[in-house]
C-alpha cells in the first residue's frame, strides 16, 4: 500500500499537514505565553485595587492576594507616582525583565521558545499597561516554572489536536484521491491490460468516460493509440504472411511465365497451324499470372478499419446478399433460402458483416456450380445467453482435404480451383475484430456448414 499512489499521497498529506501545524504551533505558544503574563498582570491589578479600597489589609490577606495572582509583588504607577502596592519576600534576585507594551511578534516568539528550552525556575519582572486605563503601568515579579509547565501542557494539547487533524485530513484526502484519481487510473490500466490480452478485438478499445479533464484526455489518447495499433498489427500480419508466400509465388509465377515465353517464341518463329490453338493457352497463362500478382498485392496493401459496432437487423443484410447471389446463379439449378427469426438483431459492423456473409455464400455457390449438380444454400441464425450465431450451410461436394488443413491461411486455404484463399482469411480477420470467431462446423459429401459467432458481451 505504501508503494501505491494513494498510499504515498496519504503519507505526504500527513507530513505536510504536520508541518503546517508546527508552523502554527510556534506563534500559538508565543500567544499563550503573552496571554498567561497578561492574566497575571490583571490578577495583580485586581489585588492592588483591593488594597486601594482598604489601606488596612493585614499581612495574611496580602499574602493570599499575591498567591491568587501568582506573583511576589505588585508595583502600580498612577499619576507619575510609582507605588509598591503588594509585596512578599522573593526567593532569589530577578533574572530578566519583559515589557509587554513593546513586544513585537518576533520578540514574543523568541522569548516563548527560550522559555520552553530553559528548565531552570527563574524570577522575572513583567511590565504591562493596566486594564481600563487604571494607571500608567503595572509591574509584577513572578516565577517562571508554573508558566513553563502551563506552556508545555498547552503545547502537548496543540500537538495532539494537530495530529488528529492531520490524520483525519489525510484520510479524507486519501478517500477523495482514490475516488477521483486512483480509481479512474486503475480503470485505464485495466483497459490496457485487457486490450493487451487480445489487441485484435475492437470491443476492448477504451471508451473515454472520465470526469477529470486530464484523465479523459489520457483515455482519448489511449483510444487513438489502440485504434492505430489494431490497424498496424493487421498490416504487419498481412505483410508477414505476404513475405512467407513470396518465395512460393515467385516459383509458380516463374513457371507460368516460362510457359508463356515458350508459346511466344513459337508464335514469333513459326507459322505452324497449331499456333491458333496455342494462343488461348498463352492468354490463359498470362491471365493466371496477372491474377495471382494482383491478389498478392491487394492483400499486402489492404488496411481493414476497426469495426463500427452498432445494433442491426440481420435479415436485411442476408436479404441483400442472397439477392446479389441470385443474379449470379443464372440458369443453374441452385436455390437460396434464409431462416432468420423476425427482427433478429445483433451488434456488428454492417458493412463488414455483409462482406463476411457474402464471401461465404459466394464460395458455396461456386462450389455447387462447379460440381454441376443441383444444390441449396441456406442462411440461418439463432442466439443463446452469451452469443449470436449465424450459420451458412450448403449441399455442395464439401471442401478438399488440403483446403480444410489451411482453411484460413492466405494463399493456402483456397476452396475453389485457382483461388488464392484470401477470402476466408479476410472474413476470419473481420470476425476476430468483432471479438468473435468464424469456424468450419462440418464438411463432406453431404455439404458444408460454416458458423459465425458474435459475442454479446463488451469484452470486459
TrEMBL record:
Gene3D superfamilies: 1.10.287.130, Histidine kinase-like ATPase, C-terminal domain (3.30.565.10)
Sequence intervals crossing the membrane: 6-30, 158-181
EC number, as in UniProt: 2.7.13.3
CDD domains linked to this entry: HATPase
InterPro entries: HATPase_C_sf, HATPase_dom, His_kinase_dom, HisK_dim/P_dom, HisK_dim/P_sf, Sig_transdc_His_kin-like_C
Catalytic EC class: transferase
Pfam family, one: HATPase_c
Reaction catalysis annotation: ATP + protein L-histidine = ADP + protein N-phospho-L-histidine
SMART domains membership: HATPase_c, HisKA
Domain Histidine kinase: 248-458
Superkingdom: Bacteria
Gene Ontology molecular function, alphabetical: kinase activity
UniProt keyword list: ATP-binding, Kinase, Membrane, Nucleotide-binding, Phosphoprotein, Transferase, Transmembrane, Transmembrane helix, Two-component regulatory system
Record bears the keyword ATP-binding: yes
Descriptive protein name: histidine kinase
Native species: Tateyamaria armeniaca
Amino acid at each position: 500500500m505504501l508503494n501505491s499512489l494513494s498510499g504515498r499521497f496519504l503519507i505526504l498529506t500527513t507530513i505536510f499537514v504536520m508541518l503546517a501545524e508546527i508552523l502554527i504551533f510556534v506563534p500559538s505558544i508565543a500567544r499563550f505565553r503573552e496571554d498567561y503574563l497578561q492574566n497575571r498582570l490583571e490578577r495583580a491589578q485586581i489585588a492592588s485595587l483591593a488594597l486601594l479600597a482598604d489601606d488596612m489589609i493585614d499581612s495574611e490577606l496580602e499574602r493570599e492576594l499575591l498567591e491568587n495572582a501568582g506573583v511576589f509583588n505588585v508595583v502600580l504607577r498612577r499619576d507619575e507616582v510609582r507605588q509598591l502596592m503588594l509585596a512578599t519576600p522573593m526567593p532569589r534576585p530577578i533574572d530578566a525583565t519583559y515589557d509587554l507594551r513593546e513586544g513585537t511578534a518576533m520578540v514574543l516568539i523568541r522569548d516563548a521558545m527560550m522559555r520552553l528550552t530553559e528548565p531552570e525556575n527563574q524570577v522575572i519582572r513583567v511590565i504591562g499597561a493596566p486594564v481600563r486605563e487604571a494607571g500608567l503601568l503595572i509591574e509584577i515579579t513572578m516565577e517562571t516554572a508554573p508558566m513553563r509547565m502551563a506552556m508545555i501542557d498547552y503545547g502537548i494539547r496543540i500537538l495532539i489536536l494537530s495530529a488528529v487533524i492531520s490524520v483525519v485530513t489525510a484520510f479524507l484526502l486519501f478517500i477523495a484521491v482514490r475516488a477521483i484519481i486512483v480509481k479512474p487510473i486503475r480503470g485505464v490500466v485495466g483497459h490496457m491490460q485487457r486490450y493487451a490480452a487480445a489487441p485484435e478485438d475492437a470491443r476492448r478499445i477504451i471508451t473515454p468516460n472520465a470526469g477529470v479533464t486530464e484523465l479523459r484526455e489520457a483515455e482519448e489518447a489511449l483510444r487513438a493509440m489502440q485504434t492505430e495499433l489494431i490497424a498496424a498489427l493487421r498490416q504487419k500480419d498481412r505483410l508477414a504472411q505476404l513475405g512467407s508466400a513470396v518465395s512460393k509465388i515467385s516459383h509458380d509465377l516463374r513457371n507460368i511465365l516460362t510457359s508463356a515465353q515458350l508459346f511466344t517464341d513459337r508464335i514469333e518463329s513459326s507459322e505452324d497451324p497449331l499456333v491458333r490453338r496455342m494462343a488461348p493457352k498463352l492468354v490463359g497463362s498470362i491471365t493466371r499470372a496477372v491474377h495471382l500478382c494482383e491478389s498478392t498485392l491487394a492483400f499486402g496493401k489492404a488496411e481493414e478499419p476497426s469495426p463500427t459496432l452498432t445494433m442491426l437487423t440481420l435479415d436485411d443484410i442476408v436479404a441483400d446478399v442472397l439477392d446479389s447471389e441470385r443474379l449470379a446463379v443464372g440458369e443453374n439449378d441452385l436455390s437460396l433460402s434464409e431462416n432468420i427469426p423476425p427482427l433478429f438483431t445483433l451488434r456488428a459492423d454492417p458493412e463488414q458483416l455483409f462482406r463476411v456473409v457474402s464471401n461465404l455464400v459466394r464460395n458455396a455457390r461456386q462450389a455447387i456450380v462447379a460440381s454441376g449438380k443441383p444444390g441449396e444454400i441456406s442462411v440461418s441464425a439463432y442466439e443463446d445467453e452469451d452469443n449470436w450465431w449465424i450459420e451458412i450451410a450448403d449441399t455442395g461436394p464439401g471442401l478438399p482435404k488440403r483446403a480444410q488443413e489451411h482453411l484460413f491461411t492466405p494463399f493456402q486455404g483456397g476452396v475453389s480451383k485457382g483461388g488464392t484463399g484470401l477470402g476466408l482469411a479476410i472474413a476470419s480477420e473481420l470476425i476476430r475484430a468483432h471479438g468473435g470467431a468464424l469456424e468450419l462446423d462440418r464438411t463432406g459429401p453431404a455439404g458444408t456448414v460454416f458458423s459465425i459467432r458474435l459475442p454479446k458481451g463488451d469484452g470486459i
